[in-house]
C-alpha cells in the first residue's frame, strides 16, 4: 500500500519528521541518515539526509538527483525541508560565520561533480562535447558553486 502524501502537515512540523517516514530503507548513519533515493531506481541507499541544529534538513543524492526532484518524489517541496518561520516581521539574514558544512564536508559532497568537470575537460580535448555533455557540465558547475557558497568560502 502506498502512503498518502496528500495530507497537509501542521505548521509546527519538524522537517526531519516529514521526510524520513517517506523514504525507503532509511537508517541512521554517522552524520544523519541514509536511504534509498525516491527520485531514481535505487537498489542500494544513495540518499544522505542530515538535520542541522536549527531544524533545517539537508539532502544529497550521491547518484546526482536534484534535491527538488527527491522531495517531489515523496510529495514534498524544498520549503518542507525548513522549519516554519516564527510569526512577525520579516527577518533579515546576515552571512553566516558558522556555515552549515565544513570545507571537508563540501569537498566530499561535490567530489562527483568535480569528476564530471574533469571528464568534460578530457572529452573536450579529444573531441566535441554534446549538448547533453554541456548541460551536465553546467549542472556540475552550479552545484560546485552552490557548495562553495554554502561552505562560507569568500572569493
From TrEMBL:
GO terms for biological process: DNA replication. It comes from the Bacteria. InterPro entries: DNA_primase_Znf_CHC2 (IPR036977). Signal peptide: none annotated. GO terms for molecular function: DNA binding; zinc ion binding. This is DNA primase/helicase.
Amino acid at each position: 500500500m502506498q502512503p498518502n502524501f496528500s495530507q497537509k502537515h501542521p505548521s509546527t512540523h519538524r522537517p526531519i519528521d516529514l521526510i524520513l517516514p517517506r523514504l525507503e530503507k532509511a537508517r541512521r548513519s554517522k552524520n544523519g541518515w541514509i536511504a534509498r533515493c525516491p527520485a531514481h531506481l535505487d537498489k542500494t541507499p544513495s540518499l544522505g539526509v542530515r538535520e542541522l541544529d536549527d531544524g533545517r534538513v539537508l539532502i544529497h543524492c550521491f547518484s546526482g538527483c536534484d534535491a527538488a526532484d527527491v522531495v517531489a518524489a515523496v510529495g514534498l517541496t524544498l520549503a518542507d525541508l525548513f522549519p516554519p518561520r516564527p510569526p512577525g516581521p520579516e527577518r533579515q539574514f546576515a552571512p553566516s560565520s558558522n556555515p552549515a558544512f565544513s570545507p571537508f564536508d563540501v569537498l566530499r559532497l561535490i567530489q562527483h561533480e568535480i569528476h564530471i568537470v574533469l571528464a568534460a575537460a578530457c572529452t573536450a580535448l579529444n573531441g566535441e562535447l554534446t549538448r547533453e555533455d554541456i548541460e551536465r557540465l553546467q549542472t556540475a558547475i552550479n552545484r560546485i558553486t552552490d557548495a562553495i557558497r554554502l561552505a562560507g568560502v569568500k572569493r
